[in-house]
Amino acid sequence: MIELHIIGEGYTEERFIKELLVGHLANYGIKVVASIFVTKFDEETGKLYKGGISNYQKVKSDIMRRLTADKRECLRVTTMIDFYGLPADFPSYYQAYREEDPYRRVEILEAAFAEDIRDGRFVPYISLHEFEALIFSDPNKLRRIYFDNDKQIDGLVALSEEVNPELINDNPETCPSRRIKRAIRSYNKRFAGSRVAKAIGLNRIRSRCKHFDEWLLGLEGLTIAN
């Protein structure tokens, strides 16, 4: 059986993995271990600090620590990192940004990421553009929590019908999370993010989010041989 470690950028991603991906991938004979990137280790207290990515080295160190400590052929490690706010020291960052097509950008970044880790058990994934793009696959489901915001949610629904959720851009004022927060002032990613995504369901998310679907297809097809 494949043991797949999915490392998320924060607690919302970890909860999403646990609530939507653990059971789904179990159907493919894959045991999922959900976790958050370790960004600091206090040697005096032994305490680990998790969440948030300020530079690439912290990401690489956490991945390499797992791959080095466990040499099993059945181990796989993948990531759930936002393209929005990605640290500029990621491999091929500036090369990727010369491309206009966001899908081509993440293709370049993920290829360079894999090349830098240099372990066939590693499967890179960078989300376009951030977690809230998944919510834009069906923002109607926000009503299940924010039921007093019908007019604001109508606006989010209209936008989702006009554009590909993964192509809602990475400008600080118009990125997916900022658009939702502007419409619903009480929106809290940690509280509502995975709940809304669960209400939407993987099938809907996959039908609207091409890059997410490609990643999940790759995970479903993992075998010890590959």
Describe the structure.
With 226 residues, the protein is α/β, with parallel strands linked by helices. It has helices spanning 11-26, 56-69, 93-97, 102-117, 132-135, 150-162, 176-183, 189-200, 202-208, 210-220; strands at 2-8, 30-36, 38-42, 47-50, 75-82, 122-123, 126-127. Strands 1, 2, 5, 6 and 7 form a 5-stranded parallel β-sheet that branches. It is globular, with a radius of gyration of 18 Å.
Summarize model confidence as the mean pLDDT.
91
Number of domains: 2
Put simply, the count of helices is 10
Give the topology string: H per helix, E per strand.
EHEEEHEHHEEHHHHHH
| Helix content bin | 40-55%
Count of β-strands: 7
Biggest beta sheet summary: 5 strands, parallel
SSE diagram, text form:
Blueprint: E1 2-8, H1 11-26, E2 30-36, E3 38-42, E4 47-50, H2 56-69, E5 75-82, H3 93-97, H4 102-117, E6 122-123, E7 126-127, H5 132-135, H6 150-162, H7 176-183, H8 189-200, H9 202-208, H10 210-220
Parallel strand pairs: 1-2, 1-5, 5-6, 5-7
Antiparallel strand pairs: 3-4
Helix pairs in contact: 1-8, 9-10
